[in-house]
Amino acid sequence: MAMANKLALLKEMLDSAESSLRSARQIISELLPAGNSRKEYAKQAATLKPSGDHEEDQIIEGVFDGQHMIGPDGKSYPVPANYASKSKLIAGDVLKLTIGDDGAFIYKQIGPAERKRIIGPLVYEDGQYKVLAEGKAYKVLLASVTYYKAEVGGNVTIIVPALEKSEWAAIENVLPNTEFY
Q1: Residue 130 CB neighbour total at 10 angstroms
Q2: Residues 55 and 27 grouped into a single domain
Q3: pTM for the model
Q4: Is residue 164 part of a domain?
Q5: Among the four 7, 69, 172, 173, which has the fewest Cβ within 10 Å?
Q6: 17 and 60: one domain?
Q7: Where do the H-state alpha helices sit in the chain?
């Protein structure tokens, strides 16, 4: 067998093995107890005290779940993906939403969750960008992928909650094309 054919066969075998490992890790993460659910974030948000009394504005404090802010009533409020990406929000961060009398939504992070950083490759599976790290596939926002110009297969540093499990992570940096072990 020619050298080029052997290399192509080896690459195909490695790609297949990586795909199998990703699938196995995803199944494991689905079988493990999930991180905070919407109900748990709503319970956490219910303990927050309103910060100030603005007659013209409505203020709601809640907890970020990776995509949305969950208010104390369990209601989901849309957080702009570009704000979540640039602010590097992670699940468990406490946010304050000010709804102006003109209907404008203004978010501010007021209580960051404890964080940890991990490194892994960016993949695209099931219509979702994910980073494979510590045996888990963490979802990341498309806005983060485009903001940092991350490429599938490249290594990225992500931020995840240090004290709880989460499906979501925030991209912190795209690493240069070097091998990490």
Answers
A1: 24
A2: no
A3: 0.68
A4: no
A5: 7
A6: no
A7: 3-31, 38-46, 81-87, 142-147
Closest CA to 67 of 25, 107, 27: 107
Question: Residue 3: pLDDT band by 50, 70, 90 thresholds?
Answer: confident
Nearest CA among 99, 120, 13, 4 for reference residue 54: 99
CB-based contact 42:76 (threshold 8 Å)? no
Q: For residue 5, what are the domain limits? A: 1-32
The C-alpha atoms of residue 164 and residue 181 are separated, in whole angstroms, by 25
Q: Which pair of tokens denotes residue 165?
A: 């499990």
CA 178 to chain centre: 23
Q: How many domains does the chain have?
A: 2
Distance CA 139, CA 76 (A): 19
pLDDT at 8: 73
Judged against a pLDDT cut of 90, whether residue 13 lies above it is answered with no
Same domain, 17 and 56: no
Whether 55 and 18 map to the same domain: the answer is no
**Extended strands (E) in 38-162:** 58-64, 68-70, 76-78, 94-99, 105-111, 115-125, 128-133, 136-139, 155-161
Domain edge (last residue) among 83, 111, 139:
111
Domain final residue, candidates 57, 79, 111: 111
**pLDDT (0 to 100) of residue 15:** 72
Task: Return the pLDDT at 28.
Answer: 61
76: enclosing H helix or E strand: strand 76-78
d(CA 33, CA 21): 20
